[in-house]
Amino acid sequence: MQQYNVTGMSCAACSARVEKAVMKVEGVESCAVSLLTNSMGVEGTAAADAIISAVEKAGYGASLKGKEAKKAASSDELGSFDRETEALKRRLISSICVLVPLMYVSMGHMMWGWPLPGALSGNHLAMGLFELLLTVVIMVINQRFFISGFKSLINRAPNMDALVALGSSASFIWSVYVLFMMTDAVTRGDAAAAEGYMMSFYFESAAMILTLITLGKMLEARSKGKTTDALKSLMRISPKTAHVIRDGREITIPAEEVMRGDVFVVRPGESIPVDGVVTDGRSAVNESALTGESIPVDKSKGDSVSAATINQAGFITCEAVRVGEDTTLSQIIKMMSEAAATKAPIAKTADRVSGIFVPAVIGIAIVTLTVWLVLGQSAGYALSRAISVLVISCPCALGLATPVAIMVGSGVGARHGILYKTAASLEETGRIKTVVLDKTGTVTKGEPTVTDIIPAQGFTEDGLLKLAASLEAKSEHPLARAVMLAADAKGIAAADAGDFTALVGNGLSGMVSGARIEGGSMKYMAGRIDVPTGLKARAEELAASGKTPMLFSKEGRAAGIIAVSDVIKEDSPGAVSALKSMGVRVVMLTGDNELTAAAIGREAGVSEIIAGVLPDGKAHEIRRLKADGKTAMVGDGINDAPALIEADVGLAIGAGADIALDAADVVLMKSSLSDAAAAIALSRAALRTIHQNLFWAFIYNVIGIPIAAGALSGFGIHLNPMIAAAAMSLSSFCVVSNALRLNLFKPYAGIADAKAKSAQSEPKTAAADIAKPETRRMTINIDGMMCEHCERRVERALMSVDGVISAKANHEADRAVIEFEAEPDRKLLKQAVEEEDYAVLSFE
Question: What is the reported pTM?
Fold first, then answer.
């Protein structure tokens, strides 16, 4: 999407006019104009010059955003709200200073008899000229309304300024006409007639309309500025300098000049200038600016760091990996900026109305004037009704109803590490009926963890863990890493193992402190030693709960069991419960076997599980679930890319620095399932705000215009143009202020409480059958698999062979099932599996 700055827009009719003009340019596929940020996003092959020309022909200005703007929606653009507010404030103060004496003469003296200076007292002509002069001054101060309004009329694209200009001009011209009539009466010496004309002046209405509209514009600009507070705060924390090592010495340069591969240093308290990898040192880094998580994260050699995060403890040396526009911070700002430049589907109705709103109001005003004149009312009365119609109408409220809520909602999300890529994704997330969760890395932590340590008689937990760690220290298996981490956490140092032997997929053997130590799967160890009945029973229980039990022995005697599993994240049960409490159907979709999936589902509180689904089959399951309503897929954004794309809304969880995942509609910076629930809750709150704003904008005009036209005059209710102008001024302000209430919304409220109410029902499993009718199957008996990670390795190996459509391994059954149309070469299948250090026993 190519971004443009657009100038000269004042209301929704303006943005609709610009959008319509650009869509006529050949090569433009889509165009979204944001009145809130005065920007435009265009997709297609059209040349920038042609697009800018089309905007200028429509009566507005446009310029292509350069690289600086692409980085962040440039600070100039965001600062324009503040500058606009200051300019409007100066205009308002100047207008009020002139308006006060005008209202004193026109209202205070005429209605309540307030005294006047000698030069004006009793001199009706002088009072009329005085009001004329002051009104002209206010019109000059607020000339922007007239320039923009009449220019839009000339271009046959009337906007809100046109309504203000017409209403104020009509009041002024009528008053000038009355002043000439008064002059004639004074010349003829008809004092009674001259005094009567004084009551027909509308100078104060013309001036008051302009002043009140300026007040409304200032309040609106100030409130609109607050909608971008989150974006501006991100821009403010952008690092300004970096300390890089060049030619062996440390120099300080602007952060934007850091090159990929540069080595830079960061001291305690300093901001990290670009994304990089720690090459030396240890520290704790506060990443709250990006993820919303206030607890510092420990960093050491090999860990990644992101721009704008704060180094809180140690001195670290890093190598730059992502610089300039590629940093995580720049991508976040770019994403928020582009979201603001897009339009939500819900805004289309308001846009269609806005496109014809101003011409329709002008038509209603003309009809109002004509009808009252035909009914025999005075020209002054009829004109007053027509002017009221012009100035009470507010297309701005319609145009701002959606984008301000989108901008504030996006800002609130960004503060919590929830990034909506477009306005449409924010809206769609709020309409989700079904959430599909990938298991590994989404519901679970995605890495093996020691869950149970069960020592045999004569051994202690720490003693068993020390034996296991000493043996596993020389293994590269993922389960070995889990054992080592558990030992490190307890401060247990592994002893050196000699005569180490690893039988891949079966077990390990070695000499530790002069004793023969062995370890492996229950099946393998049962063939090596006598396993006590109690340990066998515990191993079966652990396996039934989806865990992988490993048995260890010392000198041929069972030492105990250590169980390893991919455990669920601490917040998963609460997040699942929160989703259910919102009326969302929760489904877990996984490639794991039913036993493991059921165990994880029970623990997380997921009541519907689809197990045994390969990556290419997940998209098929999403299509099936979409038939029951809008469906969201929550995954890691890489392995689940097809499913994320297929879903109505794709949420990439734990994206970290890779936030530009094309497959996802919503990016969750933290690896927390609670963020998915929070994203839906926030989107629903934003949708409620949009509905409230649209209701107010429509109902205000539907009720206000007829009253202004005199529909209730039979009941003695007449709407003065000044009151109409005040109502119009406040309408947009109310819409923006209502949107700002979203800043008070707490997206995580209730998630912690929901965990306690988590459903305890048994999950229903459904093994997914993704085989096509024309495919055939082959079973391969394989020796050496002992866990889920082994299964994944075997599956990847088999899938690499030409002709294999799908592969599913089961370490408990010691076999793998492949699907194919044309039978693949068995030698290639055997070779692929054995290259992963597993043994192929036979084919069936």
Answer: 0.69
